[in-house]
Write a structure and sequence with these properties.
Layout: H1 3-6, E1 12-13, E2 30-34, H2 38-49, E3 53-58, E4 69-73, E5 79-83, E6 89-90, H3 94-100, E7 110-113, E8 118-119, E9 125-126, H4 137-145, H5 151-156, H6 159-166, H7 170-177, H8 182-188, H9 193-206, H10 216-228, E10 236-239, H11 243-257, E11 261-264, E12 270-273, E13 280-284, E14 287-291, E15 293-296, H12 300-309, H13 317-325, E16 332-339, E17 350-353, E18 361-364, H14 370-379, E19 382-388, H15 396-410, E20 419-427, E21 451-453, H16 466-484, E22 493-494
Parallel strand pairs: 2-3, 2-15, 3-11, 8-17, 15-21
Antiparallel strand pairs: 1-22, 4-5, 6-10, 7-10, 8-9, 12-13, 13-14, 16-19, 16-20, 17-18, 18-19
Helix pairs in contact: 2-16, 3-16, 7-10, 8-10
Bound molecules: flavin-adenine dinucleotide.
């Protein structure tokens, strides 16, 4: 690949992601999808569109997994949609956007947030607004304008180490850096402390893994995916109504329209192979479903539990060992508060933070989401959400005190605001990407052929992350099954898979 290839704008269709030639499967072909998050829903969609009779089993009474929403009530009885937390829909999430287009063809429910400021102590702000979209012009412009790295600082930077970010290459980067921690790699850059905090730490933390427990290769992939190789810019979109109304209710209708049987609130406890062939049977509480293929699209703890309970999945010892070795990262907290007053009008709808202890970001929901805006207009209040990722402990009182102190430092006008209502989530179900875990990480395909894995923990052959990784894995899992039936799958897209300096010899 040439240097110019690395500068290509827009989505690239990936070759070899689907090999089938027919348009639809034979009548009666059935698949079971376990898990109704983005990965499971993406797989169910692609399979059902090709004529597969899909049964989707989801443990919770609603679709969405870590992007789900459900109804709670304010003290005056007003219902509202509580969510698993603010989510940013980046522009290079090409496969997720194609999934959303199934229910919102012009993506009208996405609205852009034109800046993504990073707030630090003492009023420090880093902005990504107005940067050129094309790598590496975006990086050059950021380094030229940032106050946190001077020319003198840049002279002290370890240039070959820093160039590794621009030389991202799926196989070489993982081979060289997977055993190193992200913390050690960042320290090797010799960036000044404040520059490192405002430009790197904030992103590293957004991947939910603490730097000293995360693979440097995985972090380099994220830097490439979100910034250095991303032709769409760092700004992102958000849904303009709660996830339930904007996404999951229309998606339920769409799936049902394709004939998908949704078994919501029905966890799969175990799977087994049918005695008279290669088909599979999933055991639910007091019921079972059968299919010619199985998509396992659950969280890491749930996948480990399913493998633990299902002898048929443990026949291949290598895969069983790889699943047992998967882990979750530290817990995260999402704290939604309905406050009796609003923040200053100049505040951004969403701001990341750096150097503010456990506080990772602050969202003002009434500034982008309809339901919260209507409540705010009625009451004059504000719907504030505070996130803490990779929490080092589970002391809820201490975490809340730190989050609230961070909010009041950054937005002093909210100091002392009365909390009319709050929702607190504390959970540990995001995947860990520890050093040295890449080689063993399971892929979408398994030795069983008609069993595939999907989720944001799966190893994929192109750079991708979080919601986009989950969706891409779901689509790729469906494509694997469709290949077996010689049926055309879903086209998959990516940013340029390699850094713009990846082809240059080291030392140049
Ligand atoms: C606080 C927070 C903020 C985030 N912000 C962002 C963001 O801004 N941008 C971004 O891209 N990503 C973000 N993410 C990450 C994103 O939410 C995930 O990457 C993505 O939703 C994962 O989707 P998934 O389908 O792989 O897993 P999940 O959504 O976890 O889906 C797995 C599903 O399996 C179900 N299940 C489990 N066990 C069983 C069983 N036995 N039987 C049947 N079903 C079962 C679960 O209930 C769940 O619905 C955020 C995550 C969190 C927690």
């Amino acid at each position: 690949m040439s240097l110019l290839d690395g500068l290509g704008l827009g989505p690239r269709e990936l070759r070899g992601m689907s090999r089938g030639t027919r348009e639809r499967v034979d009548t009666g072909t059935r698949a079971i999808v376990v898990g109704g998050g983005l990965a499971g829903v993406a797989a169910a969609c692609v399979l059902a569109e090709r004529g597969v009779k899909v049964t989707l089993c989801e443990k919770e009474p609603h679709l969405g997994g870590r992007v789900s929403a459900w109804t709670e009530r304010l003290p005056d009885g007003t219902p509202y949609q509580m969510e698993r937390g603010f989510h940013a829909f980046f522009r290079q999430y090409y496969n997720l956007r194609n999934l959303l287009r199934r229910v919102d063809p012009r993506l009208e429910r996405l609205r852009p947030l034109d800046d993504y400021p990073i707030l630090g102590p003492d009023g420090l702000v880093e902005s990504f607004k107005g940067l050129p979209r094309t790598p590496p012009l975006n990086l050059m412009a950021l380094l030229r304008r940032t106050r946190f790295v001077t020319l003198a600082d840049l002279r002290g930077v370890d240039v070959p180490a820093a160039q590794r970010m621009l030389r991202f290459d799926m196989s070489k980067t993982y081979a060289t850096f997977d055993d190193t921690t992200a913390a050690d790699y960042l320290a090797s850059l010799r960036f000044p402390e404040r520059g490192r905090q405002m430009l790197f730490d904030v992103f590293a933390h957004s991947f939910f893994n603490p730097e000293d427990e995360m693979s440097a290769a995985e972090m380099l992939m994220m830097f490439h995916f979100y910034f250095l190789g991303n032709p769409e810019g760092l700004v992102f979109d958000v849904l303009d109504e709660p996830f339930s109304d904007a996404l999951w209710k229309p998606m339920e209708r769409y799936l049902e329209g394709l004939g998908v049987e949704l078994r919501l609130g029905q966890p799969v406890e175990r799977v087994e192979r049918l005695k008279n062939g290669s088909a599979w049977r999933a055991e639910l509480v007091g019921a079972h479903v059968e299919g010619d293929a199985l998509v396992l699209a659950v969280t890491v703890p749930a996948l480990r539990a399913l493998f633990g309970a299902s002898d048929a999945l443990r026949v291949d010892a290598e895969l069983a060992g790889a699943i047992d070795a998967l882990d979750v990262t530290r817990p995260f907290a999402v704290w939604r508060q309905y406050l009796d007053r609003a923040a200053e009008p100049s505040r951004a709808p969403f701001a990341g933070t750096a150097g503010m202890g456990l506080l990772d970001n602050v969202s003002l929901f009434e500034r982008f989401e309809g339901e919260s805006r209507r409540w705010s207009l009625r009451t004059g209040g504000s719907v504030v959400e505070l996130h803490a990722y990779a929490c080092p402990h589970a002391d809820a009182d201490a975490i809340r005190a730190e989050l609230r102190a961070g909010l009041e430092t950054l937005y002093p006008e909210l100091a002392g605001a009365r909390v009319i209502h709050e929702s607190w989530l504390f959970s540990q179900d995001c995947p860990a990407f520890g050093p040295g875990t890449h080689a063993r990480r399971p892929r979408v395909s398994t030795p069983y052929g008609n069993v595939v894995l999907a989720g944001d923990f799966v190893k994929l052959p192109f750079p991708t992350a979080l919601m986009e990784r989950a969706t891409s894995a779901g689509m790729l899992a469906a494509n694997h099954l469709l290949d077996r039936w010689d049926v055309r799958g879903e086209p998959l897209y990516s940013i340029p898979p390699r850094g713009f300096m990846a082809s240059l010899p080291l030392g140049s």
